[in-house]
Specification:
alpha/beta; six-stranded mixed β-sheet
Length: about 625
């Protein structure tokens, strides 16, 4: 088994692990979670032996082979499938030895090696490798292309396939779903669920974790804690623990306050002095319970768009591609405020092409794209991260968008995306992929779009940021179209699914489970009849459910708008109250010559407090009505 015993790990001045212990048994599939920067990747380096603990030990059975996914792939001339086959080192060693035996004419050795090759399932290795890379989105023709012909994201897929080919008792995967589309994620999920070895998996995709792992290791404040069950079970247990911890903390604080009151009351009383001293010593010995802090480092929302024309955008008989035959043909659609659309479809079918057409980044070959006057597009894709100025700080990026804005307002806005204090003023170049994605998202939100187009927005975002993004998208007043492999996000923020396949864009009458079945059906019958865009049975009920969900959202919108209105009013009145309190704190205001000004400010303070109380009551009443309507 894999064991960490009283392990401490420091990187520079930071203590990532502090005298923590962990045991992973053979065959367990363990998800590793925690905020970015807590040390998840460093844990993998410890297990691989690339790092040594400062104290304690890390032990792994000597006969365990460990496989992990490299984060970079050189531009090799080697064909893709040969690169993937290299992941099975024992197979390659056996093939090399067999070639030597054949060259030497050693029949006895050849027979032994052929038998060993059969035991290794070496004769089916090439077909297994081909199934792996096809499942990750490569076409049969591309398996013979050189590795150098592929972009960075596609090389990462080859690295993943190479890792999955390895014969390993322990498999380490660090964010394997980044750079994958939903189809590839579903296939990887099935492969890992059937994997017989031990798995350590770092992922921020809760659906993926739920389907694959049976344990969760949680990083928190330098410790590792193992939970049984999948990610959803962990969330429930962790929430209960935090509630218990907070209750224990509050109880202890009451006891501490009681002891302090006793000491202050009887410190000078000779008869009670010994008891007071005894209580102080008891206080020193008391094991302190820390407050349970909510893990919500990111808090932001999409501001109300300046305009909401209806429709926002129309495509009419549109065909689009990149030269030559179009990828999309005869597309006709309209987008309206309140639309929540998730795009599904096989890799290469044209989902990103459609997003680029909607964004106006790709001109149609035929037909028309007709934007409404006042359309403001917010387009989030991974290439936006590459367009950040590496020398500019997050603050400067935002200030360039709005030079007239107050610096503190910009700092407050960036704080909602995790850029607080000096982090807002540091250059962008050394930021991690997740931090750059957060900054690109912040710049998009600040522009107040009324049409959001998001192509894999959760890549590199941790669970906390994904949660904050989900909450913000649920309240977004404009239209949303997204491509994502994060099924939790799709279920939470979309109420309609469109299928992009065979050049067409059409409504998919089903849910994500139906889409998985559709993919399996499509794979099982290549060249056969094309599956319909939705389940064969229950089409009407699925359509009705989605229509009902859209109607429900529209029905609740006035209540949500009222709640936002009162929240803005409470913010305004709170700022006004603070300004009045600052003015009343001026000692000079209480001189005789300023009595009239003092009386005026006190009257204003009373009026503001009255209005603030009324706004809070109205907000509470609207919130209760919304809860009742949702029940």
């Amino acid at each position: 088994m894999l064991e960490l015993t009283n392990t401490t790990l420091r990187r520079g001045t930071r203590e990532l692990l502090r005298e923590t212990s962990l045991t992973i048994h053979p065959g367990q599939k363990v998800g590793v979670v925690g905020a970015n920067g807590t040390g998840k990747t460093s844990l993998f380096s410890l297990v691989r032996g690339e790092l040594s603990p400062d104290t304690g030990s890390v032990s792994c059975p000597g006969d365990w082979r460990v496989a992990w996914m490299a984060q970079e792939v050189p531009a090799l001339a080697q064909p893709a499938i040969e690169y993937v086959l290299d992941g099975d080192e024992e197979l390659r060693r056996t093939e090399a030895a067999l070639a030597e035996a054949e060259a030497a004419g050693d029949g006895m050795r050849m027979g032994e090696l052929h038998a060993h090759l059969h035991a290794l399932e070496g004769y089916t290795a090439r077909s297994r490798a081909a199934r792996l890379i096809h499942g990750l989105g490569f076409s049969p023709e591309e398996e013979h292309e050189p590795v150098s012909a592929f972009s960075g994201g596609w090389r990462m897929r080859l690295n993943l396939a190479r890792t999955l080919m390895a014969r390993a008792e322990l498999l380490l995967l660090d964010e394997p779903t980044n750079h994958l589309d939903l189809d590839a994620v579903l296939r990887l999920q099935e492969w890992l669920a059937a994997h017989p070895g031990t798995l350590l998996l770092i992922s921020h995709d809760r659906d993926f974790l739920d389907a694959v792992v049976d344990r969760i290791v949680h990083f928190q404040q330098g410790t590792l804690k193992l939970y049984t069950g999948n990610y959803s079970a962990f969330e429930d247990k962790y929430a209960a623990e935090r509630a218990q911890q907070q209750a224990a903390y509050e109880k202890q604080q009451k006891e501490v306050a009681r002891i302090h009151r006793f000491v202050e009351r009887f410190r000078a009383n000779a008869a009670k002095a010994r008891q007071a001293q005894s209580r102080l010593k008891a206080l020193e010995r008391m094991e302190q319970v820390s407050a349970a802090h909510a893990d919500d480092p990111f808090q932001f929302s999409f501001p109300e768009p300046e305009r909401l024309p209806n429709p926002l955008l129309s495509l009419k008989q549109l065909s689009a591609g990149y030269g030559g035959d179009p990828i999309l043909r005869g597309v006709g659609l309209e987008l309206h405020p309140g639309d929540r659309i998730g795009l599904l479809g096989p890799n290469g079918a044209g989902k990103s092409t459609l997003i680029q057409v909607l964004a106006g980044d790709l001109a149609p070959q035929n037909g028309s794209r007709e934007p409404a006057q006042g359309l403001t597009v917010g387009y989030f894709a991974q290439h936006q991260v590459d367009h950040l100025d590496p020398q500019a700080s997050p603050f400067l990026h935002l200030q360039r968008l709005d030079p007239a804005a107050q610096p503190q307002d910009l700092r407050d806005f960036l704080g909602g995306f995790g850029f607080r204090g000096d982090a807002a003023l540091e250059p962008t170049a050394p930021l991690s992929g997740g931090e750059k994605a957060r900054l690109a998202l912040a710049l998009l939100v600040y522009r107040r779009p009324n049409l959001l187009l998001m192509d894999e927005p959760t890549n590199h975002l941790d669970l906390e940021m994904r949660h904050a993004l989900t909450l913000a998208l649920q309240e977004f007043a404009g239209a949303l179209v997204t491509v994502s492999h994060d099924r939790h996000l799709l279920r939470s923020v979309t109420d309609r699914l469109w299928l992009v396949d065979s050049g067409r864009v059409q409504a998919f009458d089903g849910d994500l489970n139906d889409y998985r079945k559709w993919l399996l059906e499509r794979t099982a019958s290549p060249g056969g009849s094309e599956p319909s865009a939705g389940p064969e049975k229950g089409t009407d009920s699925h359509r009705e459910r989605r229509r009902a969900a859209a109607d429900r959202r529209k029905e609740l919108k006035p209540l949500r708008d009222e709640i936002r209105k009162w929240e803005k009013e409470m913010d305004r009145l709170t700022r006004k109250k603070e300004e009045l309190e600052q003015a009343l704190a001026n000692p000079g205001l209480y001189a005789d010559e300023n009595k009239e000004r003092l009386r005026e400010l006190l009257q204003q303070q009373g009026q503001v407090e009255k209005e603030l109380g009324e706004a809070e009551e109205a907000w509470l009443e609207a919130s209760e009505r919304l809860e009742e309507a949702q029940a």
